[in-house]
Specification:
CATH topology of one domain: Jelly Rolls
Shape: elongated
CATH superfamily of one domain: Galactose-binding domain-like
Low-confidence stretches: 306-311, 369-375, 436-442, 454-458
CATH class of one domain: Mainly Beta
Radius of gyration: 54 Å
CATH architecture of one domain: Sandwich
Order of helices and strands: EEEEEEEEEEHEEEHHEHEEEEE
Strand content: 15-25%
Structural class: alpha+beta
Largest sheet: 8 strands, antiparallel
Helix content: 10-25%
């Protein structure tokens, strides 16, 4: 299988209508000149410009012929079905033949038998078939062998081929004339878009006009190009079309297609293309290539778009990660156990010199179950030192006992409690028995030993 060549130009109209012939056609609108890849049909059935070539008869002797006008190395064929909103017609297989004089034809061979190429399964999907080996000649025929059972012999085609020098033509060895400059198909930012529209307007000032419909949010003008035989004038009964592209900033293809359409219509009109001349003289076309230039400029500067300005890409800097030890949390039990902490709290207790009974109610509670202790008053002989020494006395809470008498140091026996306050008690030098009554907690004989809450204290 040979290397594929570029298209000859059936789709791009580089191949003229007179270079196309056919064995037959249903009507003029379905003639050989309509057998071009991707050509579109009109809305009405029987339109003068229909969507493909259709043979007048349904047999295997029908063909569509392309004249390359010089020796060409043919390498492949692309086919489609008929473009129509009313019928379904396409070719399912075909043969390819080549000739130098259009009288003697040589088929494409696949080994020892004539090659039959599979074609389409629907009207619109293009199918490419490369020839098993390139064929050299001036003319190429596509010979349908089968077609859609409910349709007829209809197709659109493109031929791949490369020109080769003709040994019998001395002029063919000379360099070919310069080809038509290609369309400027690349990404254009806002400034480049304005330059291209200005250039097209200067090339075809008699059929073009550039105007603005307003400004973007950042102050960029929204430029529109009008293409018509009388630009700037509304002609009664002439249809007008408006094409808008670039509604979103990253929709880059629409802008380029409209810019290329401007160039194409201008150049083909200057070359006298009949089809383009009908469009220009019979319609008024408005092309808005970028409705959102602000968004396009933002997307244009991002990396990855061909032609975009280089944007510095941040280089990641290695960062040293330091692992800090995390203290392991100590689990806390569901029911914490209270731990008694002795605290020395000095509590001044003024006591008179004479023995005075001092009631000191002390409620002793054990955790977790409350236990009541019966404390009986008893005289405590306390030696009186020269200097009073504070003696820690454990009590549950500080109990201020205001007595308007002279302070007497009284030692208090410590009792294990949650809080251990210190009560300095001054005591006179003589030994004095001091009864220390406390609030007794007694339960009646009918109460349980634990003295529940319903028992009174007295």
């Amino acid at each position: 299988m040979g290397t594929a060549c570029p298209p000859l130009g059936l789709e791009s109209l580089r191949v003229l209508d007179e270079q196309l012939r056919a064995s037959s056609h249903k009507r003029h609108g379905l003639g050989a000149h309509r057998g071009r890849l991707n050509i579109q049909s009109g809305l009405d059935d029987g339109d003068a410009f229909d969507g493909g070539w259709c043979a007048a008869r349904e047999d295997t002797r029908q063909w569509l012929q392309v004249d390359a006008r010089r020796l060409t190395r043919f390498t492949g064929v692309v086919t489609q079905g008929l473009n129509s909103i009313w019928t379904y017609d396409w070719v399912t297989s075909y043969k390819v033949q080549v000739s130098n004089d259009s009288y003697e034809w040589a088929p494409s061979w696949n080994g020892s038998e004539e090659a039959v190429f599979p074609a389409n399964k629907d009207p619109e999907t293009p199918v490419l078939n490369l020839l098993p080996s390139p064929l050299v000649g001036r003319f190429l025929r596509i010979n349908p062998q089968s077609w859609f059972p409910n349709g007829t012999v209809c197709l659109r085609a493109e031929v791949l081929g490369c020109p080769v020098p003709d040994p019998s033509d001395a002029h063919a060895w000379h360099p070919p004339p310069p080809a038509e400059p290609p369309l400027d198909f690349r990404h254009h930012n806002y400034q480049e878009m304005r330059k291209l529209m200005r250039r097209v307007s200067e090339e075809c000032p008699d059929i073009t006009r550039v105007y603005s419909i307003g400004h973007s949010s950042r102050g960029r003008r929204l430029y529109v190009m009008e293409i018509s035989d009388n630009p700037g004038q509304h002609e009664l009964g002439e249809p007008e079309f408006r094409y808008v592209a670039g509604m979103h900033g990253n929709e880059v293809l629409g802008r380029e297609l409209l810019l290329n359409l401007m160039e194409f219509l201008c150049r083909r009109f200057r070359l006298g293309d009949a089809r383009v001349a009908r469009l220009v003289t019979g319609t008024r076309i408005h092309l808005l290539p970028s409705m959102n230039p602000d968004g396009y400029e933002t997307a244009y500067r991002l990396p990855g778009i061909r032609g975009a300005h280089p944007v510095p890409i941040p280089v990641p800097v290695p960062v040293t990660v330091v692992t800090m030890p995390v203290p392991t949390p100590v689990p806390v039990p569901a029911n914490p156990v209270p731990i008694p902490v002795p605290v020395l709290v000095p509590i001044p207790v003024p006591i008179p010199v004479t023995p005075v009974p001092i009631p000191v109610p002390i409620l002793v509670t054990m955790v977790p179950l409350p236990v009541l202790f019966l404390v009986t008053p008893m005289p405590i002989p306390v030696p009186m030192p020269a200097n009073p020494v504070p003696i820690p006395v454990p009590v549950l809470v500080p109990i201020p006992v205001p007595i308007p008498v002279t302070p007497v140091p009284i030692p208090v026996i410590p009792v294990p409690m949650m809080l251990i306050p210190v009560i300095p008690v001054p005591i006179p030098v003589p030994m004095v028995p001091i009864p220390v009554p406390t609030l007794l907690s007694r339960c009646p004989s009918w109460c349980p030993s634990q003295c529940p809450s319903q028992c009174s204290f007295w």
